[in-house]
Amino acid sequence: MPLQPPPLLDLYRLMLLARRLDERAWVLHRQGKIAFHISGIGQEAAQVGAAFALQRGKDWFAPYYRDLALMLALGLTPLEFVLGLMGKQGEPSSGARQMPSHWSLRRANVVSHSSPVATQAPHAAGLGLAIKLRGGDAVVLTTIGEGSTSQGEWYEAVNWAATHKLPVIFLVENNVYAISVRQNQQMAVEHVAEKAVGLGLPGVIVDGLDPVASYHAVGEAAERARRGDGPTIIEAKVARMTPHSSDDDDRSYRPRDEVEAMKARDPLALYRQRLLTEKVLSEAQDAGLQDEVKGVIEAAVAQAEAAPYPPAEDAAHPVYVEDVRRG
Amino acid sequence: MAEITLIEGLRQAMDEELGRDERVFIVGEDVGPRGGVFRATLGLFDKYGPQRVIDSPLAELSIVGVGIGAALYGLRPICEIQFADFIHPAFNQIVSEAAKMCYRSNGDWTVPLVIRAPYGGGIGGGLYHSQSLEAFFTHVPGLKVVIPSNPHDAKGLLKAAVRDPNPVIFLEPKKGYRLIRGEVPEGGDLLVPIGPARISRPGADLSVFAYGMMHHYVLQAAEIVAAEGIQAEVIDLRTLLPIDRAAILSSVRKTGKALIVHEDNRTGGYGAEIAAILSDDAFTDLDAPVRRLAGPDVPAVPFSHPMQDWFMPNTEKIAAAIRELAAF
């Protein structure tokens, strides 16, 4: 099935929602209402484009912690995200056991990941192997930052997938920084996609500030995977427009002019302008969307603030499957 | 009943589970046409094909990591690590991922995975083909750790491990692969539950706890000291995690004395946990200090035979330890 034209306004709405929600998380942190936030601001376009290029409900996902926009596009609700930020009961990824933004959403085929980076990559290869063994044309998308592609786990996973022609898309969200370490201290290649040469699979570079470009790149990789032609590495050149996390201050390692230049290329602003120019979106429509998103977030925050914490004794389980409680 | 070797028990278990459940597959180094370096999977590639018995790249962390991914999908992988000594690259996947998946997803995602690994010394394997490393994994909630000591349990426990919904570390006493023979029922569906220990030789004077290869030597030592009038009760622990506290306490409440034997090194070894359980819950029942006979605290088993023999507990050393404890 050829890739359909991208749903331009849906992409925009999700990018906008992710951005405003992420900004709200920073405010909640400043207000002392949450203990930690790790941001995806500047990476929304690549994520939303990827999500819309895949078949939600059928395909599988092994994401990483900057993927708020991806998760919202896959059906995570703003309330569920804020419950996670606050460690409140009902948080769907871990029952508030994990830190915020450690995704898992069974209903959307999003498998759980941890904090040690790149651990999700072999899982993606394993999901791809299972799909291949059991038949069917689902694909697996796994995401990662460029710094984490230094890990052996990522190389081993890509090697597995390439050797066994598994239906996996390795999407690298290259925001140039691994906390404080720039890409040129991380690898000798200029582009992560070049690593594909040594591993025997295609490596594609895409403008990660453009959701439409991401949509097409991921869509093409998915078609390839569904045909049985194996995995693809996609390097999306994105921007980290914030410090690493709420516990980081990037002023010690990041030139301010670089940050300012990056903000001038804000993917949300660029995409909004494009939609306005192409008359896909009107100013009035945009204002309506902004209001709608604001309302959704306000309601989510209020509801999450009123929600209870999990009872302390929830910490005792479920260590084993036999301990799983369904309430 | 047919007498078979321990490794034949393992092979039968895998054969039967592959035949019973199409979600089961084997993945590891050389497990395919070669049948594994120890021949545990011999014939299974020919019988079930390359989709069910998969030769992996030579990379342990992804044998486990890929297995975890397949398990998340709902398959039932049996991952073979060629020697337990090579499992360390996969430690992150086992400890950070497999063991924590159920807890960290509040039960949404589970990892029904078996990791088979031959362990133990006395085979001239030197530092990196001889290690016992059960204590690394018995420290990790979320894992189950199983070590069979005979063909019957090897078969029945491995079949149970494949059906268990949790990750199971299945450590196999490789020195006993062909040395240890025993009767296993033919036909039927032999399952040995994960969890319970077993009294393999009843006795009244003292309790000896062991597993795997050391259990084999403990039985020999118990036979020797029986001729001298010492009745040792031998407990084959079989499952190290979860631990069968009731079986441990029940035996020591009867005998009043406990010796733990393992070839893993002494400090922080599994014997320390048994000693702690006895100290907590059987203090007033004890008539002697809890004794441990374990591998010495050197980094691993040396290659050259005199040094290897110095390292390894054996029947004579165990018999001596039993005599000493009996005389206390």
Overview of the structural elements:
The complex is a heterodimer of chains A (327) and B (328). Chain A is of the alpha/beta class. Chain A has a domain at 8-13 and 42-65 and 105-244: 3-Layer(aba) Sandwich (Rossmann fold), CATH 3.40.50. Helix content of chain A is 43%, strand content 9%. Chain A is built from eleven helices and seven strands. In chain A, the strands form two sheets. Chain A has a five-stranded parallel sheet with strand order 1-2-3-7-6, with helices on both faces. In chain A, strands 4-5 form a two-stranded antiparallel sheet. In chain A, helix 1 (8-30) packs across helix 11 (283-306). The mean pLDDT of chain A is 96. In chain B, helix 1 packs parallel to helix 7 (151-163) and helix 9 (245-255) crosses helix 10. Chain B contains twelve helices and 14 strands. Chain B folds into two domains: 2-184, Thiamin diphosphate (ThDP)-binding fold, Pyr/PP domains (Rossmann fold, 3-Layer(aba) Sandwich), CATH 3.40.50; 198-326, Rossmann fold (3-Layer(aba) Sandwich), CATH 3.40.50. In chain B, the strands form three sheets. In chain B, strands 3-2-4-5-7-6-12 form a seven-stranded mixed sheet, sandwiched between helices. In chain B, strands 9-11-10-13-14 form a five-stranded mixed sheet, sandwiched between helices. In chain B, strands 1-8 form a two-stranded antiparallel ribbon. In chain B, helix 8 (212-226) links the parallel strand 10 and strand 11 (232-236). Chain B has helices at 6-20, 44-48, 60-73, 91-98, 101-104, 134-138, 151-163, 212-226, 245-255, 270-281, 305-311, 315-326, and strands at residues 2-5, 24-28, 53-55, 76-80, 114-119, 144-146, 168-173, 181-184, 198-201, 206-210, 232-236, 239-241, 258-265, 291-295. With 328 residues, chain B is α/β, with parallel strands linked by helices.
CATH architecture of the largest domain in chain B: 3-Layer(aba) Sandwich
Q: What CATH first level of the domain at 8-13 and 42-65 and 105-244 in chain A would be assigned?
A: Alpha Beta
The CATH topology assignment of the largest domain in chain B is: Rossmann fold
**Roughly what is the average pLDDT of chain B, rounded to an integer?**
98
